[in-house]
Amino acid sequence: MKLYEYEAKQIFEKFGLTIPKQIAVIETTEELEFSTLNFPIMIKAMVLIGGRGKAGGIKKADNSDEAKQIVSEMLDLTIHGYPIDKLLLEEAVDIASEIYLSVTTDPATFDVVIVTSASGGIDIEEIARTKPEEIWKNTILDNSKVLPDSIAQEAVDFLIKKNPDLKAVDNQLKTTISSLFSVFQQVEAKVCEINPLILTKNNKIIAADAKLVLDDNSLYRQASLLQSIDIDPQSKRHDVSEQTLFEAQAYKIGFPYLDLLDNPENFIKKDDILYVGLVPGGAGYGIFSIDEVVNLGNRYFDGKVVPINFMDSGGGPPLAKVADMFHLLMDHPATDIVITSRFGGISSCDIFIQGLIMALRDRFLANKRMIPVFGRMVGTDLAAAKSFYEKAKKETLEPLRDLHITIGNKKIMADIIRDGIEYGFEIKKQMKEGGN
User: Fold this and answer.
1) Residue 298 in contact with residue 329, Cβ under 8 Å?
2) Which domains are present in the chain?
């Protein structure tokens, strides 16, 4: 669960971190009339995504008229395609310098990691790439619940070395670092981040921003904390702002889908890589399919095979939803081939093949992009599915020319996947030779 900035700041404050004075969270311009405003103030878009500042989602207002104009404009704004529903109003603080500070978990080792830099307020990934010497990082191997004093002091010494002005607030810095670590451990967070952590002109350390991501598996243990900031611990907050275009489309239609590629909307393919879209029959089969595509790619194709998605098509989806699953992957700019499987239990092979063929026929008639499909179906309603498939192949050969479905379990799915990958590479080779 990812918290909004104002929610994260309420929790930070409970652990002794200093934050700017919170004025109000509003959803309309009219609500400004009922807020006590001592200018200047900061107006911030409440979205669960980064890059707000660059997109116009954080602005300073020096008077009432300016505040009304900014609020009106910001509520009409979208950030990375997502609308702004509410705004945080808080006091503006005088900035002398900015610091980056975070506590998170290393995804490879699950160790707790503290990261800080005297170059705060900007993209920390860019700093790490271009100026790695500007970043201090420490891994806590024993998962201590309290940050060792020596480590907090090491972080402070690094920051002072990079910015001598911080010497005047060394004790505040040390307390802040230790407190953020306590937040991370006690609320069972995945990420605690302050960017920027501000040194004010009157030598105070203030958390000007706050990012807090909680582990969903621990929410029941954090019930009282969540209730104290008006969050129902039983609720499931869906972070739509972090969805890709295709994830949002799948969520709207109603089936689980995750992109495995960064920036899939504008994905740039490599000519020597085969990108495989997956429509498996259930979540377990989905995980197997991803693993098997990677495994076979490494064993037989020099590691040049990449699965592009996870999908769960189990549970007996209706015909139209099955069609939408294939439409989504064929609209995906990365997809070279779709590999599918239907192990009919709850789900019907007949509905599955009708939905797939409906998608291909519709795309053909609409002159949309067609992608080869390789797969297998076995199980419930297989006889009806086989009859429909064979009849459709005879009646509408052209739109189904690149549909290759094995019927029954005489061939294992791993071999189907390998055949599909080989066919996909052959098609890519033919397209390259043909100049397409």
Assistant:
1) no
2) 1-20+94-232 (3.30.470.20), 21-92 (3.30.1490.20), 243-433 (3.40.50.261)
